[in-house]
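Record 1 of the preview.
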Amino acid sequence: MMEPVIGPGDAPELSRPLPVERLGGAAYETRIVANPAERAALAKRFGILALERLEAQVRARATGPGARVRVEGHVDAVVVQACVVSLDPVRSELGDDFVQLYSLNPEDAPAKDVSVTPGAEEDEPEPLGPGGLDLGEAVAQQLALMLDPYPRSPGAELAEIEHQDSDGAAREGRRPFAALEALKRR
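->
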């Protein structure tokens, strides 16, 4: 199953650390291109068949109140996932822009009960550790959000399921919840 967040002590598969000291007045810009070993490790982490390409253009800059960092960028990827119906490979080209805020202030850490405010321009900032910011992990997390949770091959359909009635007789072509409908009518 997909595990989009790395636990404590785990090394990120796509690590591009950015020490906070490098974020002075000017923005820091970089291009991230995952190598074959990084792509294979990310494919395993996210439970997909293959990650053929992962590239991102990322910009980080210190912003606003307190010690906050704004990371924005664009991620392009080519992924191969298993069809949820046939298990055949489904190849997809993905691309998306993202913005993520980080903070060095412990007071800015999100509360355990997170509420979403409709119309809010930006999410609450993620806490940053003393080691700085890993732009590669930010890109990996964005990839996780971009993945189709139910990939389907073109034309893949669920086959009619054979059911057995209470008398043990096989019935073809019935819907899976037909037995419940029959009970409801009684």
